[in-house]
Amino acid sequence: MLIQYCYESINRSCEKNGWSNSIKIPMYIFMVGTILTTLAGNLAVIISIAHFKQLHTPTNYLILSMSMVDFMLGSLVMPYSMVRSVENCWYFGEIFCKIHTSTDIMLSTSSIFHLSFISVDKYYAVCDPLRYKSRINVYVILMMIFISWVVPAIFAFTMIFCELNIKGAESYFNQVSCFGGCVVFFSQTSGLVSSMLSFYIPGFVMLCIYGKIYVIARTQARSIAANHIHFQITIGTSQNIPRNRERKAAKTLGIIMGVFIICWSPFFFCTAIDGFLRYAIPRIVVDAFVWIGYLNSTFNPMVYAFFYMWFQRALKMILFGKVFQHDSSRTILYSE
Known about the structure:
The protein is mainly alpha-helical. It contains 10 helices and no strands. The chain has helices at 21-51, 58-87, 94-127, 132-135, 138-161, 170-176, 188-227, 240-274, 283-304, 309-319.
C-alpha cells in the first residue's frame, strides 16, 4: 500500500492513516455525534441555570461552571482532536498545537475538579444538612470554581509551553516526533504527576466522599424505616419509601462514580505507565482512550442534570420556546 504523508514536500513529515473511507466515515460520524451531543447537553444546562431564577443557587453555580467547561471542551478541543485522530495529521500549526494541547489538559482536568467539588457539596448537603447553608455559601462555591479553573490552567499551560512534559525523555521524543503531528507526549515523571493531579487524587476524594454519603444515606433510610414501623398497618406503602430512597441513592452514586471511572481510568492508567513501558502502548490505543475520556463531558449533563426533575421541566420549556415568554424566568420548576 502506498504510504501517504501529511506534508508530501517536507522531510520527516508524519504518515497519514491509511484507512479507507469505510473506516474514516463511521469515525467522523461517531465523533461529530459525540461533539454535538456534548454541546447540546451542556448548553441546555447552561441556559436552564442562567435563565430560571429559582435555579440561582450556589450548588447550581458549580454545575453551571462545569457545564461551561464541558461545552468549551466540545467546541474548542474536540473538533481539532477529531481531525487529528482520523487523519493522524495536524494541519493547524505548531503554536496552535501547544495551545490545543494545553487547553485540552486544562479543560479535562477542570471538569474533573468540578466533579470533585460537587461531591464535597453533596457531602455537606447529606451529612451536615443543618449547617449546609452556612458552610457551602456563594463565596465558598466561587472559591471552588476559581480553583477548578485556575489550577488546571496554570498546570497545563506551564507544563506544555515550558516543555516539562518531555523533560527527561527528550532523546526519545526527538526520535518519534515528526512534522505535521500533534501527539500529547509525557515523560515518566510528567505522566505520573499529571495522572495523580488530574485523576487519581480527585478520583480518590470522590470515591471516599461518595462512599461516606452512601453509608450515611443508608443509615438515615434505616432510621426512617424504624420510625415508620407503627404506621405499616394503616399506610401499607410507607415501609417501602426508605428502601426506595436507599436504592435510588445507591444507584445515583454508582452511576456517578461508574461513568467517571469508566471514562477516564483507561487514559490516565496508560499515561501513568506508558513511559515506564518505553512507550509500548500503540498511539491509536491512547487516542481511543482520549475519546473515551471526552465522553465524560458528554455524559456529565445526563448524570448530574437529567436526574433532576427541574432540569426535565426546564428542558421542555427550552425545546418548546417557552423561555421567550414574559416572566418565564420566574417559573417554579420544583417545590421547595
